[in-house]
Design goal:
The protein is mainly α and about 80 residues long. Helix content is about 90%, strand content about 0%. The protein has helices spanning about 1-35, 40-50, 50-55, 60-75. The chain is elongated. The protein starts with a helix and ends with a helix. The relative contact order is 0.12.
């Protein structure tokens, strides 16, 4: 019984940690885009698109792609 509870706890902890990493990268993408640091934004976008979460969660991928496109559009206007 202890092993089952430990396994469930381990799985939940892994999921939460992976979700936080994705959120941190998303925050970095938005921060670099807001500040006009487009080279850094491109690097973060490449990292995000290589994540398994990006390929599995289509809504997450759409959100990232739309944010990236919005910042690129701002870059062209400047």
């Amino acid at each position: 019984m202890k092993q089952i509870v430990f396994f469930i706890f381990l799985c939940l902890t892994t999921q939460l940690t992976a979700g936080e990493k994705g959120n941190n990268l998303t925050d970095l993408l938005q921060s670099f885009g807001d500040n006009g640091e487009y080279a850094q934004m491109d690097s973060i976008y490449r990292l995000i698109t290589r994540e398994s979460h990006y390929s599995q969660d289509k809504l997450y991928a759409l959100n990232i792609d739309l944010d990236y496109a919005r910042f690129l559009n701002q870059k062209r206007r400047l």
